[in-house]
Amino acid sequence: MKDSGSMRKRWEDVWNQLHAQAVPQVVFDELVNAYSSPDRFYHNLAHIQDCLAIFDLTKSLAVHPEEVELAIWFHDAVYDPRRDDNEQKSAEWAVSTIDQFALDHVVAERVFNLILATRHTMQVSDRDAQFMVDIDLSILGREADVYWQYENNIRKEFAWVPESVFREKRIEILQGFLDRQYIYSHQTYRDMFERRARQNLQHTITKLSKVP
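User: That's the sequence. What structure does it adopt?
Assistant: C-alpha cells below.
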C-alpha cells in the first residue's frame, strides 16, 4: 500500500480528534483490504488518498472536518458495480464503527448522511455535504490525462456490461451532470473544477456517441 504509514497515522489522528475511546485499527486494515480488491480499478485506495488530498484544500472551511474525513474514508468501502446499495452499505459500516467506538450518535448520523450524499442523486445545501459531493466529483474536472485514466478505469469496473449498453448509460449519467446549472455545489470547488469538468464531460459524450 502506498504511504501505508502516513495513511494509518491520518486514520489515527481523525479518531483521536473525535475523542474516540480507542482507534479502530482493525477497521483500518479491513478498509485497506476492501479498497485493495483487484477488481477495483478506480474505487480503490488511490481514490481515497486523492479525496483526502483534495479535502485538505478546504478543510478549514468545513463545519465538522473530522466527520467529513471519516465519510471520505468509508464512502466507497462497499463497492459492487452490479448493486445499487453501495453507499447505503458503506454508510452502515461507518455508523457501526462509530457506535462501537463510543462516539456520539449525532456524529454517526452526520457521517451517514454525508456518505449517502455521494449517490449524487440530488443537490445538497449543507456545507459539509457540498464538500463531500464536490470532492467525490473532483475527478471530472482534472487534467486530461488524469480524467481519461479515470474513464478507462470505470470501463474496467463495468467490463461485464456490453459496450453499447455501457455507452448509452454512461452518456446518460454524464449528461445529467452537464444539465445541472453547476456541477459543483460550493464556489471554491466550482472555481477549481467547473470549467474543465464541462469540457471533459462534453468530450467524453462526443466520443461515446460515435459508432465504434
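The chain has a mean pLDDT of 95.
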